[in-house]
Each structure stands twice: as structure tokens, then as C-alpha cells.
Write a structure and sequence with these properties.
The complex is a heterodimer of chains A (about 120) and B (about 475). Chain A contains 4 helices and 5 strands. Chain A is an alpha/beta fold and about 120 residues long. A 5-stranded mixed β-sheet of chain A has the order 1-2-3-4-5, sandwiched between helices. In chain A, helix 3 links the parallel strand 4 and strand 5. In chain A, helix 1 runs parallel beside helix 2. Chain A starts with a strand and ends with a helix. The two termini of chain B are about 40 Å apart. Chain B has a 7-stranded mixed β-sheet with strand order 11-14-17-20-23-24-25, with helices on one face. A 6-stranded mixed β-sheet of chain B has the order 5-4-1-6-9-8, covered by helices on one side. Chain B has a 5-stranded mixed β-sheet with strand order 12-15-18-21-26, with no helix packed on it. Chain B has 13 helices and 30 strands. In chain B, about 30% of the residues lie in helices and about 25% in strands. Classes of the chains: A alpha/beta (about 120), B alpha/beta (about 475). Chains A and B meet through helix 3 of A and strand 22 and strand 25 of B.
Chain lengths: ~120, ~475
Amino acid sequence: MTLHLDTSTGKTIGVARIEGRLDATNSGILLQKFPEWLEQTNDFVFDCSALSFIDSSGLGAIVGCLRKALEKNGDLRLACLDPKVSMVFELTKAKQLFSIYHDCHEALDSFNTGKQQ
Amino acid sequence: MKTLLTIRENSYAWVTSALQGLAPLLLPICNKPFVEFLVDFAVLAGSREIRLLSDGPLQEVEQYCEDGSRWGVQMSYAHIKESDDHQTIFEKNRRFCNDSKVMVIDGFVFVGYDKKNDYRDLFNSMPDGTVASCTTGSIRLFTVSESNMANNDETPVSLTPIDSVESYYDLSMHILRHESSRYVLPGYGSEPDSYVGRNVTISKSAEIIKPVSIGNNVQILAGSVIGPDAVIGSNVIIDRKSRITESIVLDNTYIGEELDVEHKMANRNTLISPQGAVSIAMEDPHLLTGIKDTARGIGNLLRTIVHTLTAIVLILLLVIPFILITPILAVQGKWKSSRKTCYDHTCKGVISLPDVSIERSGPLSAIAFALSLDRLPTLFRVVGGKLSLIGNAPIAAEEKNLSPPAATPGYRPAVFSYAEAENWPVGGSDAAIVERFYAIHSNPLQDIGLTMKSLINRFHDTTTA
């Protein structure tokens, strides 16, 4: 899990790349890191292009991050969901909580245009 | 007319990889096994003898269809080689075809027909040749003694390939939405487009929206919404506040709380998106999981203790009538005792059990039967830990069984069977469903209640042995 700050849209947005599996074994790491990331910005895009598997713990961690971002008047948007990961979001109705985009650029642009999916 | 069904393994290989744990030829289409649709059609076309040929395993389908007597036909099974062409298959089955008109249904295809039509005269009057065909199969007519071949322009039936998860899903949904009245689908329904099986518990606050097909032994818990366009298989639990729409939930699947299954297929712990056949195996048992035998560990120990104590009570109650009545019946020749060898609970070993039958003529033998005195000798096996008090009817080891115990989840040979408790004829396929349901869902207290029901049922049983 790595974070870099993107300013290409004129706004500071944290782009976090989530890789591999996000499950009970590593979802705690995300929850631990996210408050540190929140000190740098309130708006985030989670690039899930390399996320191959998610379970309910991982999903809980991402929802937890969203809640923290919203508490700081920010947002967390998701990009590049693998079809398998997307199915878990659909199944658990978590898809309704997030703005989900096909790619990172689209997600980054959405912060400027204010267009949410 | 006779029918040859030739289904090659490579035509259904996708089922084995995408829907694990399912026998491809028994793939449920709106809760009715695929092969049964073919048999129904063959019967409508006037066939009285059906032979199923495949280069893949036939054991499961043979166990399901048996000799075909339930459809009033004679079914037989034979293996073919992967390399066998139509001519070779026909030659190998020349004796079966035996101067009769033969319909050959070739491929893993769904035959679209209408149960209201009688295809007998039509098919008998049609010349030999192809009746219908699609990319993966065909229906052809042959007569061994004749050689006139023709292609029939008008096809009275349609063929749909079932060659992918997507085509299977589309077919099931199409039948459920538009053509359910054309086929005999399993389940009871007071309204059209609604088919509900046995032992289905639907919570008052659950909502069922037609069209739906619900299998046997299904629990739909509070706040759930089933349908529209939902096929729920057998032995399925839909937990609270979940929604199933435009989806197929296959047998033995648990759907967790507050989930939204839309335009998907669920097979045990695997969720499949029909488009593109994307699937994910859930690792969270509270989301999606297979339903297995849960009678293990402490639960099983508690069950054993409850069964043993209840058996001791029954022995104490029955021993005096047994001592008084059975010698008289034995002298009269109405008490017939033998032994039978049955599979034990491990399904690997066997146990020898007393097998008593009472000739029910006269008041004394009626009393003996009503008191279940014939079961007293086996009650001691419960105390010895070899049998359960209530569970499955012991499966005889020497017989060619309907359902081998290894294929019966939670098989527990017992003195009384759950089927007896629910008044189903012991040994039939209905009994197997009832026994399977309770094997998975019953608890020790329920077992006592069901044992009492079995005992009471014997009082009301008026059939003569």
C-alpha cells in the first residue's frame, strides 16, 4: 500500500495503490496508515487496479477510511476495480457507498468537475 | 420409438470447471435436472426405451434416473469412446435400435418443447433425417431397416446450446420468465410462475416476487426479498434482509445477511457473474458458503448423550411388553427376525443389525407394531453408540443403493428415520430429501420430538406388513 500526492488537477489528492489481497491479515495496516495519510490531504483515490482479492475485513477497512475522510469533509473514491472485487462490493451493497471510476484519471478529474458516479 | 441420448464429456466440461460439485448431466434448469428435460421430451415423442451414452462418468445420473420406471420408460446406460462417430455409436447400439425408429439427441443441448403437444404422431410420420440442430447438437431420426433420408424443413422443437455459464444462466432465466408453462417444473404453486418445493420456510416478513422457482428444504429468513426472476435450489438458506433478483442460487448454498445478489449465480461459496463467467470464491462464511454437515464436536457429543438417554427410557418402557408379547408372536410365526448388514456412520465400515418384521394380523401383532417392539433390539445399539436414535434409515451394504451414504451429508444410521417422523415412505427419494434436511438442520431436542412423532405415527399406521 503506497500513497503519492497528485496535484495535476490543481487539487491535492492522495492516490493510494492497493495491491494483492486486502483481507483480515493486512486490513489493519490500511486502517493504521490512513490517519497518517489524512494529515496530508482529505481527498483520496484508491487505485485498485492491482487489488486481486478483498474480503469483508478489507471491505470494512475501506469503508472505515471513507468514514474518516468524510468526517474531515473529504472523500474517498475508487478506481479500476477488478471484476471479482467489484462483485464483492455489489454483493455487500458497498458499491452504493462509493463513487467508482474506470480509471484513476477519471477519478482524479471528478474531484474538479464535481461529477460523482 | 426409442431414444439415444449421446452427450460427450467435452460438451459439458465448462460445468465441471465453473460449477464445482455439480454433476453436469443433473445440472438444474429451474430446479429440474437437465437430463429430466430430455427424458420428458423423449416420452412426449413416444419413446419407451431410452439409452444414455457418454464418454464421461454416468454413475450419478444412473443413480438419479435408475431404470426410468418413474417416467414409465426403460432407461439404460452405456459408455462410448471419445473417438466414436455417429456411425460407430449406431453400430454399437444396433441391438438396442433393433428395427425401430430411433431418435438421436446429440450434444449438451436444451430441447425446447411444449408439454401440451403430443409429438408421437408427428415424429413417427416424419422421414429419417435431422429434425433440429444447433451449433453444439442435433436431433435426428433413424430407422435401421430404411435408408431414406431427408432434412425436415419444419422443426417442431428448438435446440439451445448450453455451452457456457452465460448460456446456462440465460436459458434458466428465459424458461422462468417466459416458458415455464411449457415444461413440468418441480414444486407446488397455487399461482402461475411460482414453483415452491417441500420443506420451504418463508418468514412472514420475507417477500416473494414472481417469477420464482424455489427448491426443497429452503429457509428464507425475515426481511428477505426473493425475485423477480430468482431460482433458488434445494438445501438453501437465505439469511435476513438479503435480496435475490435475476439470480440462480444453486443447491447447498448459504446466502448471508443483508446481501444483494443481483444478476448473479451462487454455488456454495462461489459467486459467479454470468457475463464473462467471472467468479470469486468467498472466504467469509458469513457472506456465502456451502451448507455442510454441522453435527460435529460438542454438538455431536450432546446429540449422542440425548439419544442414548432417550433410548434407555424407551428400552425401560418397552421391555415388559416385549417379554410378554414377542414369545407369543414368535410361536404364531408372526415375529420374523433376521439380520442385515448396513453402512455405519463413517460410510466406510458396516454393522450387522437385527431386522425384525411383524406380520400384522390380529390384535397382538397390531399392539406390538404400534409399540415399536420390532425396534427394541436395535435400541440397544444406540446405547452401544453404534446407531443414532433418529436419523437416516440404515443403508444396506449389500444392495445397489439409490444413494450411497457417502453422498448423503450427515448420514447417521438410526433406529427411527426422519422420513418416518414426517410420514414419508422410507427409502424413496422424498425420504432422502427429508433425511438430508434434518441431518443438517436438526438439533438434539428436535430429535426427541421427531422420535416421538415416529412412535405416534406407528400408532396411526394402518398399512399391513
